[in-house]
Amino acid sequence: MTTQATTRFTNQLHTMKTQNQKGFIPFTLLGWPNADISFEIIKTMIDSGATGLELGIAFSDPLADGPVLQAAAVETLATGFDVDQAFILLQKVRAYNQDIPIGLMVYFNMILARGVDQFFKDAADAGVDGILIVDLPPEGAEEVTAAAKTSGIDLIFIVSPLTTDERLQTILKHANGYLYVVSRLGITGTDNTHDTQLQDLLTRIKAQTDLPLYVGFGVSTPEDAQKMIAAGADGVITGSRIIQLVQDQPNSSPQQVLETYLQSMCNLSE
Amino acid sequence: MQTLGFFGQYGGIYVCEPLMPALEELEEAFLKFSKDPDFLTEFQHLLTHYAGRPTPLYYAKNLSALWGAQIYLKREDLLHGGAHKTNNAVGQALLAKKMGKTRLIAETGAGQHGVATAMAGALMGLKTEVYMGEVDMARQEPNVFRMKLLGAQVHGVTSGSKTLKAAINEALRDWLANVRDTHYVLGTAAGPHPFPTLVKFFHQVIGTESREQILAQLGKLPDYVLACVGGGSNAIGMFSGFVDDTAVKLIGVEPGGEGLNTNKHGAVLAKGTVGVLHGMKSLAIQDKDGQVSDTHSISAGLDYPLVGPEHAYLRDIGRVQYDSATDTECLEAFHALSKAEGILPALESAHALAHTKKLAAQVSEDTTLLVSLSGRGDKDLHQVMSVTN
Ligand SMILES: Cc1ncc(COP(=O)(O)O)c(C=O)c1O
Q1: Residues of chain B found within 8 Å of residue A163, distances taken between Cβ atoms
Q2: Which residues between 98 and 127 in chain A have a beta carbon less than 8 angstroms from any beta carbon of chain B?
Q3: Which of chain A's ends, N or C, has fewer CB atoms near its CB within 10 Å?
Q4: Is a pLDDT exceeding 60 seen at residue A6?
Q5: pLDDT tens-digit profile of A17-66?
Q6: Domains of chain A (ranges, CATH numbers)
Q7: Is pTM, for the whole model, over 0.95?
Q8: Ramachandran bin of A5, using left for φ above 0, alpha for ψ from -120 to 50, beta for the remaining angles
């Protein structure tokens, strides 16, 4: 849409990186457990000082997700919350805050079903800055690069402990905004056994790019986050834990449940 | 990757980044070993002496008289394990062993692929774990016992429809976590490249043998070749032997469930639209947002909302025609073959037979129909008896 949107991730995360400030990107599923509470959750994230947002759209077959996010996707879809409503909710989030970088995390089939150009246009119109397509490796990136460019949306890519330097080069040809580094193999969830090669990996990536490195998968606590930062991360991404916290206290507002936790994750330092 | 494995617009690789190195490694190993004389000799040896190839091509005289055409059955039901799945499982397990993997995982619907992988794992000393939807565990219980007795661990899958799609989801999640030491023995000619190509490679023997056998028995090629299509592995193996014989008509038979006018079927080539799941771009039964639907079929092995990418391509170019048979037609065919020939077919294979009956009624009596009898029906006894009373 606008060039401003293009640069929200790039500008803000990059600036933080050069100032050696560490970032926190919380994740939740749009529409979970319903549109109103979902908005409250996201609002609490913004108000608690999140660096950016990573928001998912519920999919019938979330192959990279663990039990917590799988169950949340099932619940969301059962309420009838669809992709149109996800875009409406995104617009509401963008109206609430003009500055925060918003990333979408989606499975490719949802983009294909809407039509690649239409999906990216709708995302840009809703104020989305970056899209991470979980099951589109860089080999297939050309299916979306034109749409991403036209709509001014950054393509966010995953790097794993198994990604070779050669693959990293291919990824870096298409990657913008930041790199989503997975801390370990496996699926999303709170299991915090991190890969022994993570530190190596972060060092290897830094040798090849200036993009900020955000580590996700199994980062649930400030202690996990500090470990990632000590290993060389520029920031962390947390998802399952946030959903779990809300689940565990169904009678409290998201703000009551999440504020202290989110603030502790936002106050990361070297 | 050397190629992305597209068949027209279908195929490719659509997986999360951590799986890419494993697919690169697999493609490299496949390209190397599929041309390696020692590997091929070893594979051939196992097919012959362990699995019992060649399987017979049987002229079903009684059924031919009953239905009014010349019906030949490719007896994959007589292969060790009771279905064609053994070709692929043994091939992939051998490949996994060469790649230094120590653990096999598999998904299974009917249980036949799980059994085949459990056999291959036992044979080659590889730890084997199989994911199976709980609905399928109930309706294919004998195969659950077989897998366990063969030393495999069976994980019941409780998500979604609790059938094949959910089992593949769980197997892929396992692979994401354990990709360093584990090979995922995908059970059909679907999934990310190189699986569709590799699975077809190991099943080509069905088509090659059938072609030689019918030429030897009849002195000519068949008029039609039929096979059931779940993900499409027995069909692609069979069709590969005849795809260049343009006079031979190829027909794939999908599960019509309770009818294509209901939403309880699995006729992906008839009703699907282009989509991406399980690592491939293909046809999928899905809604406007790309949420992939649950399907229905009496046969667990065909109960799947996607199809192997090469079938989508063969449909588009008009080389293969895809029809469907309903649950009821499948059961009728099951009984017909059992009573006429003394052969209990798998419910999957009975779909191909059901369409054979319909076709036989339309063609002249001397028309030759070659049918892939992909598996035997022992696994289905419980289910068939429960609906037969
Ligand atoms: C006997 C038999 N035939 C056919 C199938 C369907 O698979 P495919 O379409 O890959 O041949 C199965 C799957 O379980 C099977 O067990």
Answers
A1: 17-18, 20-21
A2: 107-114
A3: C
A4: no
A5: 999 999 999 999 999 999 999 999 999 999 999 999 999 999 999 999 99
A6: 8-14+21-263 (3.20.20.70)
A7: yes
A8: alpha
